[in-house]
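Side project, low priority. Logging it here so it doesn't get lost.
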Amino acid sequence: MNRREFISTSLAAGTAATFATKSAQSAQSGSVRIVGVSCSPRKGKTTATGVKAALDAAKTVDSRIETELIDLGGMEISGFSGVAKPTMDDFETVLPMLRDPVPDGLIIGSPSYFRSMSALCKAFLERLAVLRKPKLMLADVPAGALAVGAYRNGGQELVIDQIQSVLLCHEMMIVGGKPGAHQGATLWNLAKDDITKDEFGMDTSRKLGIRVAEAAIRLTSKKI
């Protein structure tokens, strides 16, 4: 066997093992768990509302779907320090919800601050490095991104791209929405924090949630 064949065989085996593990977890619980994370420092505001709309739409796809919203608003989470010793902060209270067990689908939402993800979102994503060793625990999990801006064209798609770039480092399966939300959900805070006034944006949230749910159902139902 040459080097290329060896690598291809190893990758195929690794993917099969990942699918088998996730299928076994879902089979044991009888449910498909989708977690949404709001990475806004403002608890319960527009980003959290957008992520919740995506999760609510996800539940309409299949009766087996269970959802959980993690609102990071008000939490203190430091960025990755680059050392093995973990930083003890609020991330430690969030980590079990992402590891025990690993979710079947993930939706990450962030406000757009100066056309970039929030500092809280960046820190949270950096700290997910703990889920990369000794193996990529989030590999093959469907993931979608959501962004809220102060303007219709306030950098939302840039924020989505930044979030997706990090998730690709975990070998997650990036999922967009249906027409109008192909890259992800883009919301506009045009009515003093009542994000539901942005009908188009809320629709993109729902479409994203549905697509993540559809992908999660397919993957957890896959026969190995």
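Brief comment: Helices lie at 3-29, 46-59, 91-94, 96-99, 119-127, 156-168, 199-221.
Revisit when time allows.
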